[in-house]
């Protein structure tokens, strides 16, 4: 058991109150007693009980983070950015994983609220369409910041990229290198970022007077390596002329490339590919993947910074004005769209 | 601000003590008052203050986890295993990253102890050679479990793999497919797992009557992709006859393969390679990497299970008997050691 004030009091044969006052430098305790108490506390390795401290300050100095998936290059980069920044400000981070499940996400928010965290950071599960659990956080006046996978309708601060614009840049790049029949492997139907990337793809085709054909849009349900392989097989059996694919996320793109390699279809000569996220793996597979760089570490850092400001404002009972931070992305051109095609 | 007992008391015009007693079903409060209080608490969405609860039960239901690196396939799998298991038992996990720094690791342990976590899980930073900060955890009777990168001399429970045996299996496989001049890219000098893998490599050479040549052992200081490339360049300039390499970790092996591909040196025909960890990437690069499968998710799960048992035992003041769990590994044979060489 940790050393308590009582242990120090017993050792010195004085009252617990005197020990407590001595440690807090109250003026009605003699210098000699203070010195004695502090030396004993140090000797016994006494540490103030942080729960008791919390009860006084009403701060837990702990925040909660809920993400859909941990074993994922992008999200682990975000976590890295968050805990780095949090540590600088003396905050600890409790991490929970929703596994893309709405039910789990809801339960985890309850857990964090019961734990009285000072604020919550969240990237939504694909399944989440009802937002009452998020509004519950705001109703309790607990600061909330959403990042990457957000709900537009929830009135809180957000850190995002411009998914529509990034998708437009990716699609325009395929058009610029000469692709005329461009397919899209999109994410699931619900997440906002999956919708926005699809809309960016569609609009760019139309802006360039290319036909938009909905049968060229394939869904990757669980955004997996396998999805990439099966989508390629399906696409090849249904369409002959596809010469470029914009793929919602790198892992699916890597699966697609593996399947094209297996079938002896040349990338980029026969089919050019652009991915999304700039996972490290994209730079070492063969051929190397052209992709949109999504700034995971920075997104984590900015999300914590926003949350921290809101925690401070909320402590002073200042009104919160939700803010949306949009981070820059870049197109990283590599071999899957090389100009030699 | 969250709803407090005071809010309920004011609303009903009764004392805070009565509210508190009513919620706890004390016999000296009337049934009517209890019902009224409970209904009001539910209406106002009152949640008991977890800090106050903690003060009573002396349990935070929170554990701390310190790992060297988050953006790392193996460690993110371990985290996944830990938080999955912890959630099942109602525990939350605070995650900190030591960045392989001893100083940071020490500071983080202090933070977690001050936070009064119920237990700590740790995989050591490469720099950690002094263990007083770990013994400090034990001195405070806080349960501690180390995993993967452990300190043999610290008397706590551990979850590990048999690194020496796994390295022996990897090296033996290279010998079995006909390699005679086998190099080793090892990890830094201090971590126990890096030492053990090296010893497994060395012993296997000697057991097979092959010469051990220390100049064939190259260090990967930061275990990076770049390390793999530079080690290959250095090795090729110093040795002509190397026909196999056992590499301490997959990321370095992937860098090595990239450099060999660049130079037109054929893998496995000219040089065969075995990695370590079975990172997902290993199965999609070209050629696909033969490697030792390290069970990250299971290691996380087993580590939490051990910690949980110790937390329960410590609550009952039962003596702790440190236990070491050794998990199985397998050799996954792929193209970098294919038998066609």
Automatic annotation (TrEMBL), chains A, B:
<dbReference type="InterPro" id="IPR028082">
    <property type="entry name" value="Peripla_BP_I"/>
</dbReference>
<dbReference type="Pfam" id="PF00356">
    <property type="entry name" value="LacI"/>
</dbReference>
<feature type="domain" description="HTH lacI-type">
    <location>
        <begin position="3"/>
        <end position="57"/>
    </location>
</feature>
<keyword id="KW-0804">Transcription</keyword>
<dbReference type="Pfam" id="PF00532">
    <property type="entry name" value="Peripla_BP_1"/>
</dbReference>
<dbReference type="InterPro" id="IPR000843">
    <property type="entry name" value="HTH_LacI"/>
</dbReference>
<dbReference type="InterPro" id="IPR010982">
    <property type="entry name" value="Lambda_DNA-bd_dom_sf"/>
</dbReference>
<dbReference type="GO" id="GO:0000976">
    <property type="term" value="F:transcription cis-regulatory region binding"/>
</dbReference>
<keyword id="KW-0238">DNA-binding</keyword>
<keyword id="KW-0805">Transcription regulation</keyword>
<dbReference type="InterPro" id="IPR001761">
    <property type="entry name" value="Peripla_BP/Lac1_sug-bd_dom"/>
</dbReference>
<protein>
    <submittedName>
        <fullName>Putative LacI-family transcriptional regulator</fullName>
    </submittedName>
</protein>
<dbReference type="GO" id="GO:0003700">
    <property type="term" value="F:DNA-binding transcription factor activity"/>
</dbReference>
């Amino acid at each position: 058991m940790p050393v308590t004030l009582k242990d120090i009091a017993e050792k010195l044969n004085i009252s617990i109150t005197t020990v407590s006052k001595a440690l807090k430098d109250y003026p009605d305790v003699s210098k000699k007693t203070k010195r004695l108490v502090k030396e004993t506390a140090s000797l016994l390795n006494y540490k103030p009980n942080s729960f008791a401290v919390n009860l006084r300050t009403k701060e837990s100095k702990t925040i909660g983070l809920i993400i859909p998936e941990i074993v994922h290059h992008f999200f682990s980069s975000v976590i890295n950015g968050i805990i780095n920044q949090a540590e600088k400000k003396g905050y600890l981070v409790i991490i929970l994983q929703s596994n893309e499940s709405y039910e789990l996400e809801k339960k985890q928010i309850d857990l964090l609220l019961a734990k009285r965290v000072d604020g919550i950071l969240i990237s939504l599960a694909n399944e989440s369409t009802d937002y009452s659990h998020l509004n519950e956080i705001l109703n309790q006046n607990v600061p909330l910041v959403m990042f990457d996978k957000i709900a537009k309708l929830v009135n809180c601060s957000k850190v995002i990229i411009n998914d529509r614009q990034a998708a437009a840049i990716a699609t325009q790049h395929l058009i610029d290198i000469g692709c005329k029949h461009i397919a899209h492997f999109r994410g699931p139907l619900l997440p906002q970022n999956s919708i926005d990337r699809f809309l960016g793809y569609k609009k760019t085709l139309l802006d360039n007077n290319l036909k938009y054909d909905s049968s060229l849009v394939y869904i990757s349900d669980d955004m997996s390596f396998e999805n990439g392989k099966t989508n390629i097989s399906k696409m090849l059996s249904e369409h002959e002329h596809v010469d470029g694919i914009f793929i919602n996320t790198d892992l699916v793109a890597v699966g697609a490339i593996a399947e094209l390699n297996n079938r002896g279809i040349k990338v980029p000569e026969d089919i050019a590919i652009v991915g999304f996220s700039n996972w490290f793996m994209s730079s070492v597979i063969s051929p190397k993947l052209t992709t949109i760089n999504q700034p995971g570490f920075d997104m984590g850092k900015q999300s914590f910074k926003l949350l921290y400001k809101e925690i401070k404002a909320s402590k002073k009972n200042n009104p919160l004005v939700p803010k949306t931070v949009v981070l820059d992305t870049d197109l990283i051109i590599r071999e899957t769209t090389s100009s030699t095609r």
